[in-house]
Amino acid sequence: MNVIWFVLIAVSVLFSILNGKLDEFTKAMFDATKASVEVCLFLLGIVALWLGITKIIEDSGLIHKFSGFFRPLISRLFRRIPADHPSITTITLNLLANLFGLGNAATPLGIKAMNDLQTLNDKKDTVSFEMMLFIVINTSSIQLIPFTVIGLLADYGASNPSAVVLPTIIATVISTVTAVYILHAFRKFLK
Amino acid sequence: MRTIGVISQLIIPLFILFVVMYGFFRKVRVYDSFICGAKEGLEIIIRIFPYVLAIFVAVKTFQASGAYDWLKDILGFAARPAGVPPEVFSVAIIKPLSGSASLGIFADIVKTCGADSLAAMISAVIIGSAETTFYVLAVYLGAVGIKKTKYLIPVCITADVIGILIAITVVKLLF
C-alpha cells in the first residue's frame, strides 16, 4: 500500500503541474476529505447496525448453528479455520451479502469477518493467508445480478438490459477462481 | 432474473426477523445484545477513517490531475487493434479505485455510445464483475490494523487486470 499510495500521489502532483491543473488538484484534495467523512459517517451507522445484529447471533448461540451448516463449504477454501470458529459464520454472511448485491450489509460483515480472522492470526500486524484469501474473493466480486448496471442500461433504452447478466456471471466466476489461483501461485513461488 | 430481484429484497428483512425471533425465544435480551454489539461500531470507524481518507485523497487527485485521462488514452490506443472500444478503459481504470465514479463514467458511455453498443456492454460486465479493490483493501486491513501485507497487493492488482481482460473476452465471444 505504501508504494501504491506514493505512486498515486506523486503522479497526481506531477500531472497537475504539467497540465496546469493545480487548482483542480487542491480542490480534489479537499473534496476527498469531505467525501471520506461522509462515507465514514454512513459506514458508522450500518457497521453499528450489523455488529448489533451479529451480537444477537452470537449471544443466542445461532452462530454455532450457522457455522455447523456452512462449515463444509467454507473449510474447503479456508482450511486452517477451526470447526466452530465464529469467522465461518461472518465469512459466509459476507459472501452471501455480496452474492445478492447487498453492499450495505457486505462491508460491515466483511469488517466483522476480518476481526474474527484476526483472533486466529499469530502475528497481529501481518496479514494471514486466510485474510488474504478472504480479501481476494471480496475484491474479485462475486455478485450474481448487477442491479444498478441493469437499471442504468434500461434507463437509456437498451433493447435487452438483462443481457448483461450471463456474461457478468461468467466473467465473475472465472475471475474469482483465477484470483484464488493467483493467490495460491504467489504463495508457492514466494516461499 | 426477477425472482432473484425479489429474493434480494426479502433477504435482509427476513434474516433480521429470524435472528431477532430466534434470540427472543432463546431468552436472549435482544435489545441489550444489539446495543452491546453496535457500541463496537464507533471504535471500528475511528480505526478505519484515516485509511479511507488516504485512499480518497489519492484517488480524487489522480482523477483531477489529468493523469487518469492520460492513462486511459494510452490504453485505449493500444487496445484499438484488438477491436476493443477505447471508452472501456475509462471504466476499467476507475472501477478498482472508486465505485461511484465508475457508475458515473458508465452512465456517460451509455449516453454517448448507446445502450446497445459494444462499449456499453463491456463496461457493464466490468462494473458487475470487478470490485473497488483499493477501498476494500483500505477498509478491511485498516479495521484490524494490519501493516504488513506480504504479497496481497500484487495478487489483487494481477487479479484485477486479468479480471478486466476476462470481462472483455467473454463479451467479445458472446456478442
Overview of the molecule:
The complex is a heterodimer of chains A (191) and B (175). With 191 residues, chain A is mostly helical. Chain A is 76% helix and 0% strand. Chain A has helices spanning 2-18, 22-59, 62-77, 86-99, 103-118, 129-139, 147-155, 165-189. Chain A starts with a helix and ends with a helix. Chain B contains 8 helices and no strands. Chain B has 175 residues and is mostly helical. Chains A and B meet through helix 1, helix 2, helix 5, helix 6 and helix 7 of A and helix 1, helix 2, helix 5, helix 6 and helix 7 of B.
Feature tags:
heterodimer, A: 191 residues, 0% strand, globular, B: 175 residues, mainly alpha
Largest sheet of chain B: none
- Terminal CA distance of chain B reads 20 Å
Task: Based on Cα principal axes, name the global outline of chain B.
Answer: globular
Total number of β-strand segments of chain A?
Answer: 0
Percentage beta strand of chain A: under 5%
Largest interface: A-B, 104 and 97 residues
Major beta sheet summary of chain A: none
Low-confidence stretches of chain A: none
One letter per element, helices H and strands E, the order of chain A comes to HHHHHHHH
Average pLDDT score of chain A: 89
User: What percent of residues of chain B are in strands?
Assistant: under 5%
Q: Please, what is the average pLDDT of chain B? A: 90
Poorly predicted segments of chain B: none
Quaternary class: heterodimer
Q: Tell me the span between the first and last alpha carbons of chain A.
A: 21 Å
Q: What's the number of extended β-strand segments of chain B?
A: 0
Q: Overall 3D geometry of chain A?
A: globular
